[in-house]
């Protein structure tokens, strides 16, 4: 049998927690060869990161315990090596990059020093380490590397920080690079760039790349082989193409089915007069303009998607309309009345018609209130909706409507999973019987299959209750399935708006085309086409 | 749930006992506690030949220490609880206003706090008590004023952080009134912090009161507090340690009990932490 660069054999890890023993991974085996990209695909809690942590000796024991298995690196079992030998391999031979580069860069040191430090810690001379840092920063595409060496992490954008992390990982020319969700926190266009950078670097150095991700698109774009994990076990292994076209395991099929962007697009039909008219909406912070003269209409029962990258001002639109921040100019006419000119007292009764669902349900639900209290608060604020005697019954009804159990009413938010929490947040919004719900990245933080369920739920509510939605997202496939009309934003300006079919099939603006090409599709063949389009646009 | 935390349970029992002392002690033992008996001057503890009231020994005038400690519980706890409660209520209310209201109001309140803090608290107390009659009421007032900034600044800092949290914004979107947001959403989050500070402050106030009593502007004999007993016993430390030791021990135990109880309360009031108690003290691994 040919020897693999890295091989994990029958690895089991469990954690002792206050609630008993949790088996994080159960007898998993996989291998990685030189010059190969292996993706570990799974949703949160599937144990996809645990094997990487075991390789890097990052599992705290206790509470963790490696109960069985071997991790063979060039034939040596890492688990039986001593601490000194492990440190020699970590960093020098096997390097790792993480999801959130900002929290892994030290804010008080210049980045050049931090990258060179990795070299110096492993015995390079100061001069060599700095020379190599400069070369690497140029290689990963940081503009003006000489000046950039002396800058601090906060002076870089998210994508640049991830490039810096990659440079830091490559200082010692590792044989294996482990990337744990390297692009999850990045915008689509930046994500595509970082993935191609990783690929180029791999071709140059011939290192093995272990890519841990939850995103089928990332697998289709970058992986040579993929293992699919669920509940601590590997359910399926294969090339992305095999997995996509010929998935054997029901879980893989479920994941693929949940991937958004395949259903029929909604046809925008002629609808009644607009309920919300936004004209010249502007917001500036000092000299910086976050939103420039936004104009758009929303008709009753319509779903308007607002897409754009971070910093494009899409959340600002929502916050201004709901008066969470004061606009610098323009007007927002809700049924003919300007929301921006209302006093806070006049605004209060209108608020029940306009609701919002936030991105992160963990933060948007008060941790000290039970679900019943959270949902019924709506009626405590607006006393005319429902008499107190009927609160309990209505909460039960709402919970059932969003797919939860009546007995969940007396639990607290932390006792639910992310998807369930978002359902609670939706139930809270529905309690006021609103006519418009603004979803600010409401499904971005959720796993693919949960995301599909929440989108289904929102779609059902739209059809049953005739609620209009403003759906803010950076994820284009989700928008494609759900929206009637799309509004594309860039740097505080609306660059293009139109019916969903038009935006997705005949985008006029270059930026929209770039955005569409940068989005990752779960189908490797479609993805290959996108990639070609992306290169054409870039060239 | 209190039973799940044995230390907190013991602390609650101890505090209950102190409360009983404070309520019934003076009525039952006042005569005994102030009756001088020169033959029992600085009587050693742990003998019952003079009766069990002398179990902890006698003071410089031969009064039984145990009886005096029980009687002193009333004044001590009234002053400490009164001062802590008053400073916490006033301080956190001002802090909530400073944190949530506009910039100007906040600035004015913070500068007031700075004024109080820049003035040595003991000096302030001396001046006020010199001008006013030294009484329990005035003592509470003075101690409360000097401790207000602690709560004010903590509350304001916490409010500034909590008001930016998502669930507060969610409440705003629902149209919740300002008072609703403050009392229903912000206060429950910062209350555990305030209670923890309050229990620590309890000890500080007891000792500050004894310092004032020592200077002769606090509680006036024959009234007695634990702090006063400590300062009176100080000069006998070398030959009769028990004079200062027992009341000092009471101060420590009371503070410690409050602290344990507040620790338990912080866990019990927090839905995300409550399972630690429901687990029943069992541990894994």
TrEMBL record, chain A:
Pfam families: ABC_tran, oligo_HPY. Residues 6-256, 276-516 form the ABC transporter domain. GO terms for cellular component: plasma membrane. InterPro entries: AAA+_ATPase, ABC_transp_ATP-bind, ABC_transporter-like_ATP-bd, ABC_transporter-like_CS, Oligopep_ABC_C, P-loop_NTPase. GO terms for molecular function: ATP binding; ATP hydrolysis activity. It is found in: Cell inner membrane. One of its GO terms (biological process) is transmembrane transport. It is a peripheral membrane protein. It comes from the Bacteria. Belongs to the ABC transporter superfamily. NCBIfam families: PRK10419.1 (NF007739), PRK11308.1 (NF008453). This is ABC transporter ATP-binding protein.
TrEMBL record, chain B:
It comes from the Bacteria. This is ABC transporter permease. Pfam families: BPD_transp_1. The chain crosses the membrane at residues 6-30, 51-71, 77-100, 189-219, 239-261. It comes from Alloyangia mangrovi. It is found in: Cell membrane. Keywords: Cell membrane, Membrane, Peptide transport, Protein transport, Transmembrane, Transmembrane helix, Transport. It is a multi-pass membrane protein. InterPro entries: BP-dependent_transpt_permease, MetI-like, MetI-like_sf. Residues 73-262 form the ABC transmembrane type-1 domain. Belongs to the binding-protein-dependent transport system permease family. The keyword Membrane applies.
């Amino acid at each position: 049998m040919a020897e693999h660069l890295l091989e994990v054999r029958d690895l089991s890890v469990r954690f002792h927690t206050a609630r008993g023993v949790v088996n994080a991974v159960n007898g998993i085996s996989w291998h990685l060869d030189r010059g190969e990209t292996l993706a570990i695909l799974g949703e949160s809690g599937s144990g996809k990161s645990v094997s990487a942590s075991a390789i890097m000796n990052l599992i705290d024991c206790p509470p963790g315990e490696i109960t069985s298995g071997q991790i063979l690196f060039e034939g040596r079992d890492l688990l039986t090596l001593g601490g000194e030998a492990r440190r020699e391999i970590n960093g020098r031979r096997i390097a790792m990059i993480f999801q959130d580069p900002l929290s892994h860069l030290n804010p008080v040191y210049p980045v050049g020093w931090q990258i060179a430090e990795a070299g110096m810690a492993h015995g390079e001379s100061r001069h060599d380490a700095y020379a190599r840092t400069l070369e690497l920063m140029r290689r990963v595409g940081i503009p003006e590397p000489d000046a950039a060496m002396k800058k601090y992490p906060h002076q870089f954008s998210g994508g640049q920080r991830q490039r810096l992390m990659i440079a830091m990982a490559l200082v010692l020319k590792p044989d294996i690079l482990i990337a744990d969700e390297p692009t999850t926190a990045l915008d689509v266009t930046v994500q595509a760039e970082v993935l191609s950078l990783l690929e180029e670097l791999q071709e140059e150095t011939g290192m093995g790349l272990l890519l841990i991700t939850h995103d089928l698109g990332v697998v289709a774009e970058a992986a040579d082989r993929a293992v699919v994990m669920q509940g601590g076990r590997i359910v399926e292994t294969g090339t992305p193409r095999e997995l996509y076209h010929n998935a054997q395991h029901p879980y893989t099929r479920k994941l693929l089915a949940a991937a958004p962007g395949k259903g029929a697009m909604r046809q925008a039909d002629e609808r009644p007069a607009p309920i919300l008219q936004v004209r010249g909406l502007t917001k500036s912070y000092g000299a910086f303009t976050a939103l420039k003269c936004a104009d758009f209409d929303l008709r009753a029962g319509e779903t308007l998607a607002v897409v754009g990258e971070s910093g494009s001002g899409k959340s600002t639109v929502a916050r201004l309309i709901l008066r969470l921040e004061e606009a610098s100019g323009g007007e927002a006419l809700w049924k003919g009345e300007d929301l921006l000119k209302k006093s806070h007292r006049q605004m209060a009764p209108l608020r029940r018609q306009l609701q919002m669902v936030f991105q992160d349900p963990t933060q948007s639900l008060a941790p000290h209130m039970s679900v019943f209290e959270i949902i019924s608060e709506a009626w405590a604020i607006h006393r005319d909706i429902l008499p107190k005697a009927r609160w309990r019954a209505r909460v039960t009804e709402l919970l059932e409507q969003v797919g939860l159990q009546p007995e969940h009413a007396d639990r607290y938010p932390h006792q639910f999973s992310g998807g369930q929490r978002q359902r609670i947040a939706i139930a809270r919004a529905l309690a006021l019987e609103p006519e418009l719900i603004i979803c600010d990245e409401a499904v971005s933080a959720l796993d693919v299959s949960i995301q599909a369920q929440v989108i289904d739920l929102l779609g059902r509510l739209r059809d049953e209750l005739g609620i209009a939605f403003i759906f803010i997202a950076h994820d284009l496939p989700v928008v494609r399935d759900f929206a009637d009309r799309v509004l594309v934003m860039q740097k505080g300006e609306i660059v293009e708006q139109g019916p969903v079919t038009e935006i997705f099939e005949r985008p006029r603006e270059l930026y929209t085309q770039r955005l569409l090409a940068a989005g990752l599709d779960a189908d490797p063949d479609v993805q290959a086409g996108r990639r070609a389009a992306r290169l054409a646009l870039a060239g | 749930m209190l039973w799940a935390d044995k230390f907190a349970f013991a602390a609650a029992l101890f505090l209950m006992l102190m409360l009983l002392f404070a309520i019934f002690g003076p009525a039952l033992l006042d005569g005994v506690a102030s009756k001088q008996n020169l033959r029992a001057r600085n009587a050693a503890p742990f003998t019952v030949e003079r009766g069990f009231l002398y179990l902890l020994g006698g003071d410089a005038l031969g009064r039984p220490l145990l009886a005096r400690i029980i009687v002193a519980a009333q004044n001590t706890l009234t002053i400490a609880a009164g001062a802590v409660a008053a400073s916490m209520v006033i301080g956190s209310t001002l802090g909530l206003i400073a944190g949530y209201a506009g910039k100007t109001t906040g600035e004015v309140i913070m500068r007031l706090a700075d004024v109080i803090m820049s003035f040595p608290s003991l000096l302030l107390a001396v001046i006020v008590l010199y001008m006013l009659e030294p009484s329990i009421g005035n003592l509470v007032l003075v101690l409360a004023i000097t401790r207000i900034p602690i709560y004010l600044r903590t509350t304001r800092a916490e409010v500034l952080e909590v008001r930016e949290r998502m669930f507060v914004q969610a409440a705003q979107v629902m149209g919740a009134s300002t008072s609703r947001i403050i009392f229903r959403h912000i206060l429950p989050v910062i209350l555990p912090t305030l209670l923890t500070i309050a229990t620590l402050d309890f000890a500080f106030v007891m000792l500050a009161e004894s310092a004032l009593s020592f200077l002769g502007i606090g509680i006036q004999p024959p009234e007695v507090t634990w702090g006063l007993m400590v300062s009176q016993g100080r000069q006998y430390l070398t030959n009769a340690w028990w004079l200062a030791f027992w009341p000092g021990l009471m101060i420590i135990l009371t503070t410690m009990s409050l602290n344990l109880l507040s620790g338990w309360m912080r866990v019990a009031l927090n839905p995300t932490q409550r399972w630690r108690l429901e687990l029943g003290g069992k541990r894994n691994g």
